[in-house]
Amino acid sequence: MTNDTPYLFYQSRNPRPFLDHGEGIYLFDESGKRYIDGSSGAMVSNIGHSNPRVLAKMKAQMDKATFGYRLHFRTHPSEDLAAKTVAMCPKGLDRVFFVSGGSEAVESAVKLARQYALATGQGGRYKVISRFPSYHGCTFGALDLTGYEPLRAPFAPMMEGMPKITAPTTYLDRDNLTEDERGIRYAELLRERIEEAGPDTVLAFLMEPVGGASTGALVAPDSYYQRTREICDEYGVLLIYDEVMTGAGRTGTFLAAEHWGITPDIVALSKGFGAGYAPLGAIVASSRLVEPVLDAGGFQHGFTYAGNPLACAAGLAVLEELEDQNIIENAALMGALLKRRLEDLMAHFPFIGDVRGKGLLLAFELVADRGTMRPLAKELNAYTRLVEIAYDLGLIIYSRRTRGGLEGDHFLICPPLIITEPQIDELMELLEASLTRLADEIMP
Ligand code: PLP
């Protein structure tokens, strides 16, 4: 691979044009070609591109101050954003700490949990149980919590290995259990792992309420969410929801946790929280956790750029937009519509094995055999081919080949939450054309 630019991230293996500008659900390259941003980048651009009201509020802040270090000044954008975030979260989540991205949010959540344990005489608790498959970020700590071997293996050993349990990949299970029973069975894996690890050593359980890139929008049975909360309470284990992808309205509620009436102890937010207008993330926690940490001398943690006024002004403008334009309601409505339209594709394309997700965090999976969910042969490279074909036609989608210990091709369809019904028609037209071309290529 040769690069013609010093920018390390550019990969000539996967050449892409220069971006010119964005507008709503569309992006335009320098040649003027238009793309539907069918994945909101990496599930980031929830309110669409170049929103004029957000840009105006950011510009107003730029004219005042772009940075004021938090040890030197309080700022209105950071405090207003904290208040707005608390107002939009379920009751009981009332303290906010800012960061600049998802990995930082996950690490901050774990560090807050750890300091809470220390402050309350539970210093022996340090293990964080997470799930396989999962994705929690790319810093060493967050990567060690991630359940996806190709990303972890090149860097092992990292921190001491954290215990993992299998995420409920229930759509693959061929048994006689009801959905409810399956949810309980998977949740009880948490109890087993806590017992095995030693209950007094377990600090927290970390999970994505709806798996993102890791599982392709996998939603667990309802009973899973209730039972995992109960088990955490029973063992005094903190429940951390990684809502980096699901938060800020993506699934049709501000937090995905609201679908199941769950109040996690700590929530990690990023992606749609800054919605592509600023690198921004946050953790939201309950005072019950935060007060003992403050009493013990304060949270010994913080990043230089955290809570800077420009990023916070952007985040505040994004949350105001979500509310003023009823964007979360639109995500629920358009998500239901788009999911039905994706399910309709199954009648035409027998290699679509599953359609799943919540709100506008949707995915479909390609298989060789719908009955057994046997994946397509890896050599077909379906997950890269379909993305390339769609890109060529002007539709951006996001794909992964992974499925727990198994292999499989899934595609996330996650347009900005402002998408309209006619725009869903446009997206589906391009997706159908892409699948038809893929079928011609890979099907004998
Ligand atoms: N957690 C989840 C669920 C994610 O999907 C991601 C990113 O894809 C992260 C954490 C890491 O976020 P970032 O890439 O902003 O560090």
TrEMBL record:
The keyword Transferase applies. Pfam families: Aminotran_3 (PF00202). GO terms for molecular function: pyridoxal phosphate binding; transaminase activity. The keyword Nucleotidyltransferase does not apply. Keywords: Aminotransferase, Pyridoxal phosphate, Transferase. Gene3D superfamilies: Aspartate Aminotransferase, domain 1, Type I PLP-dependent aspartate aminotransferase-like (Major domain). It comes from the Bacteria. CDD domains: OAT_like. SUPFAM superfamilies: PLP-dependent transferases. Its cofactor is pyridoxal 5'-phosphate. InterPro entries: Aminotrans_3 (IPR005814), Aminotrans_3_PPA_site (IPR049704), PyrdxlP-dep_Trfase (IPR015424), PyrdxlP-dep_Trfase_major (IPR015421), PyrdxlP-dep_Trfase_small (IPR015422). Belongs to the class-III pyridoxal-phosphate-dependent aminotransferase family. This is Aspartate aminotransferase family protein. It comes from Marivita cryptomonadis.
